[in-house]
Write a structure and sequence with these properties.
This is Prepilin-type N-terminal cleavage/methylation domain-containing protein. It is built from 2 helices and 9 strands; from the N terminus they run ααβββββββββ. The chain is an alpha+beta fold and 167 residues long. It has one domain. The protein has a 5-stranded antiparallel β-sheet with strand order 1-3-4-5-6. The chain has a 4-stranded antiparallel β-sheet with strand order 2-7-8-9, covered by helices on one side. A hairpin with a 2-residue loop joins β5 and β6. The longest helix is centred in the N-terminal third of the chain and has 54 residues. The protein starts with a helix and ends with a strand.
Length: 167
C-alpha cells in the first residue's frame, strides 16, 4: 500500500519548472502583442483626430475666403501673390480686405482667422485678371496640426479657384 501512495503522490505533483517558464513566456508574448495593438490603436486615433482638426480648419478658411472673394472686386495684381487685396461689396458698404500669411496664421485685415492649434505653412493666391471676363483667384493652402507629435501630425494641401461675381 505504501508503494501505491508514493505513485499517487508523484502523479499529483504540480507543474515542473520548465512547464511554468514556458507558460510565463507564452503569456508575456501574448500580452506584449495585445499592448502593441492597443498602442497602435491609440496612435491611429490621435492621427485621425489631428487630421479632422486640420480638415475642419481648412474647410472653414477656404469657405470663408471663397464666399468673400466671390462677392468682391479683386484689387491684387495678376499672377502669383503672397497676399490678396479685395474690395468686399456688402449691404453696409464697401470694405477693403487683405488676406495674408504671418507667423503660421492667416490674417484677415490683421486678425487671425485660423485656430491656434493649426500651423499654416503656405498661402498663395494666383490671380487671373480677365479682359472683359470675370477675375479669378486660385487659393493654395498648406496646413498642419502643430500640437501633435511629428509622427501623429496631419498635413493637408487645399486648393480652390473662385471667380468674382463683381463686375
Amino acid at each position: 500500500m505504501n508503494n501505491e501512495q508514493r505513485t499517487v503522490n508523484k502523479k499529483s505533483k504540480g507543474f515542473t519548472l520548465i512547464e511554468l517558464l514556458i507558460a510565463i513566456a507564452v503569456f508575456a508574448m501574448t500580452m506584449t502583442g495585445v499592448v502593441m495593438v492597443f498602442i497602435r490603436a491609440i496612435e491611429g486615433q490621435r492621427k485621425t483626430a489631428s487630421l479632422q482638426e486640420v480638415q475642419e480648419n481648412g474647410r472653414f478658411i477656404m469657405e470663408m475666403m471663397a464666399k468673400e472673394i466671390r462677392m468682391s472686386t479683386i484689387n491684387s495684381s495678376g499672377g502669383e501673390n503672397q497676399t490678396l487685396d479685395i474690395t468686399a461689396h456688402k449691404a453696409t458698404g464697401d470694405e477693403s480686405v487683405v488676406y495674408a500669411l504671418s507667423g503660421g496664421q492667416i490674417l484677415r485685415n490683421g486678425q487671425a482667422i485660423t485656430s491656434g492649434k493649426i500651423q499654416v505653412n503656405q498661402l498663395k493666391f494666383y490671380i487671373n485678371k480677365g479682359s472683359g471676363a470675370q477675375d479669378m483667384a486660385t487659393v493654395v493652402l498648406t496646413l498642419e496640426d502643430k500640437e501633435q507629435k511629428i509622427e501623429e501630425q496631419a498635413k493637408i494641401n487645399l486648393e480652390t479657384t473662385i471667380s468674382s461675381r463683381a463686375y
